[in-house]
Amino acid sequence: MTKHTPVLLGEAIRQLNLKGGDVVIDATLGGGGHSYEVLNKIGREGTLIAFDLDIEAIKRFAEIPSTKSQTPNLAYRQAGKSQSVSWRTNPKIQKVGNAYLVNENFAELKNVLAEIGIEKIDAILADLGWSSDQIENPEFGMSFMREGVLDMRYDRNQELTAKKIVNEYSQKDLEKIIERYGEERFAKNIAKRIIEYRKNHTIETTTQLADIVKNAVPPKNRYGKIDPATRTFQALRIETNKELENLEKFIPVAIDILNPEGRLAIITFHSLEDRIVKSIFRENAGGCVCPSDFPQCVCGKKPKVKLITKKPIAPESEEVFSNPRARSARLRVVEKEK
């Protein structure tokens, strides 16, 4: 049973302009909330392709009870019974009715589609927030609010962990990632304190690291609205999973595989992600880049998409009240040109 509440659910689904028979990608399955609604919209004739690096998220979605009231039209449920899961040659891709569940990073989008045999997509959604199931599971080590192993991997098979980063990266590299990915003004002090601590102790747990960070910032900054460990934990999660690099790879490919008038919607949760999405969307929405004094265009560049959201869509106050983790969410949408 998932504990995750999907953010901007109604607005994201509305912006995708879904219809029966569409082929849709949910690039970040998570708790499956967005995917359930996608399946309801596209019906039995449609196809869902859902990605997640967390195999547990894939398993939960594949085994969802057929009695779940908000998903009456799931094409892989018949007569109240679950169909058997079909595994393809690639064990990371499983087929459940009209849904492909893919245990891969969304940056591998093009390769996965080639293996499935699908070339073009009608709509793509990516919710970049971490799942509540991961935050509340101490085995992931995502939260400084509870004791857990310092892991932070979405893909449990990869070698790089947050523990490896804090115990093996140089002071210079630690300072760089904490400042860049955490936008932390005390990055130098935090990196220095980590190096000092690990001279005598291995940093093993989330609470160990949170205490190190807390003691590295000035006393007056330790008890504000935002926990002093927040930005450092964000930086380590981004570095561990190469989140920004994968996002930069994903967006141009996602735009290229869209059908004309197909839409790409991305929900971000911090400024680093939003800047990347905004920049790539605008770059692909731009046309001719010739100097203004040229009598005619010689570059031949034409817009690939049009911006549907000139400004990002934020959650309504009611959603933030019921789900505080939604407060920083921002939705941007583009549509493929004809």
The portion of residues assigned to helices is 25-40%
The name CATH uses for the topology of the largest domain is Rossmann fold
Order of helices and strands: HEHEHEEEEEHEHHHHHHHEHEHE
What is the averaged pLDDT score?
Answer: 89
Number of domains: 2
Please tell me the CATH architecture of the largest domain by its name.
3-Layer(aba) Sandwich
CATH class of the largest domain: Alpha Beta
Question: pLDDT below 50 for ≥5 consecutive residues: which ranges?
Answer: 65-85
Order of strands, main sheet, comes to 5-6-7-2-1-8-9-11-10
Q: Radius of gyration in whole Å, from Cα?
A: 21 Å
Largest sheet: 9 strands, mixed
Oligomer: single chain
What separation lies between the terminal Cα atoms? Answer: 41 Å
Which homologous superfamily in CATH is the superfamily of the largest domain?
Vaccinia Virus protein VP39
What amount of the residues lies in strands?
A: 15-25%
Shape: globular
General description of the model:
It is a single chain. This protein is of the alpha/beta class and 338 residues long. The protein contains 13 helices and eleven strands. Helix 7 crosses helix 8, helix 7 crosses helix 10 and helix 8 packs across helix 9. About 6% of the residues have low confidence.
